[in-house]
Amino acid sequence: MKGRGEGAPAETSELEESHGPGPTPLSEAARDAMITGNLGLAHQLARRFLHRGEPLDDLVQVASVALVKSVDRFDPERGVDFAAFATRTIIGELKRHFRDKGWAVRASRRVQELYLELGHATSTLVQQLGRSPTVAELARMTSSSEEAVIEAIEAGQGYRATSIDASENDDDPLTARLGELDARFDSVEDRALLAPALAQLPPRERTILHMRFVEGLTQSEIAVTIGVSQMHVSRLLAASLNQLRQQIGTEPAE
Question: Model-level pTM?
Answer without folding.
Answer: 0.39
